[in-house]
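FW: tagging you since you asked about this chain on Friday. Here's the raw sequence from the shared folder, copied in full. Didn't touch anything.
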Amino acid sequence: MAISLTEPAADRVRHFLKSRGQGVGLRVGVKKTGCNGFAYVVNYADKIDPADVVFEDRGVKVVVDRQSLELIDGTEVDFIKEGLNEAFRFRNPNVSGECGCGESFSV
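HL: got it, structure written out here
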């Protein structure tokens, strides 16, 4: 089981944690929503709960709750800049379908 980061994603997290002046890493999860059932939730982790699973990649801690991990195990998190837009992107090997807008997925 693992969640990994590309170098651009790790750089982005390190930069924002430094500018925030607090936080232990990146929190990644899912919530039920959208056309296909689930959407990714990304935030900065200020603490690690006992029920969390923690991975470390490229010097950054990735914190995931156990329920989300079942749906995103093996996912690579990337950070993409396209023109004025920038966002985290996910390569999840468990996905069986995605909505046309790219906001939700099914497994």
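FW: The CA atoms of residues 42 and 85 lie 17 Å apart.
HL: agreed, and The helical segments are 7-20, 66-72.
FW: great, closing this out.
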